[in-house]
Write a structure and sequence with these properties.
Blueprint (H helix, E strand, L loop, with lengths): L12 E6 L6 E9 L1 H13 L4 H19 L5 E2 L7 H7 L5 E5 L3 E5 L2 E2 L5 E10 L1 H8 L4
Parallel strand pairs: 2-7
Antiparallel strand pairs: 1-2, 3-4, 4-5, 5-7, 6-7
Length: 141
């Protein structure tokens, strides 16, 4: 998988504490953006000051990221049989989650862990409007 790593997104990091078997264990949840998601993020960030629609989508995106950091299973899980081929091939996903944003936009993410199993990594695969979402998932009008 390829993720954007040269951009500093400190707002997307949060430490979460789990209590399995009464032993205190700390796992950090880090939310990253793929190149596709980063392009849309940059677009929304740059147009948000001048557009109410983009501002509402951008603000909702940031809010949903905070919710995902608290609960990685926040979104609606998409059944494996519906995974778009391009995501399976490009990102080798084993799970896919959807979060609805204003103006019928969607955010798609997957849940993974790092090699050390100490950190939960949540790559945001894509942020897209309803028309693009329908096209990627093969829905027809």
């Amino acid at each position: 998988m390829q993720y954007v790593t040269d951009v500093n997104y400190n707002i997307f990091y949060r430490e979460i504490y789990f209590f399995p078997n009464s032993i205190l264990t700390m796992k950090r949840v880090s939310v990253t953006l793929t190149q596709e998601a980063d392009e849309i993020y940059q677009y929304l960030e740059s147009t948000a000051p001048d557009s109410k629609k983009e501002k509402s989508i951008f603000d909702a995106f940031k809010q949903k990221v905070e919710l995902i950091k608290k609960d990685t299973h926040y979104g609606q899980q998409i059944p494996k049989k519906l995974f778009p081929r391009q995501y399976k091939k490009q990102y080798e996903i084993t799970n896919l989650w959807r979060v609805e944003l204003p103006s019928f936009w969607r955010m798609l993410y997957t849940i993974t862990s790092d090699d050390s199993k100490i950190e939960i990594v949540v790559p945001i695969i894509d942020i897209l409007d309803h028309q693009q979402y329908d096209k990627i998932f093969g829905y027809k009008k």
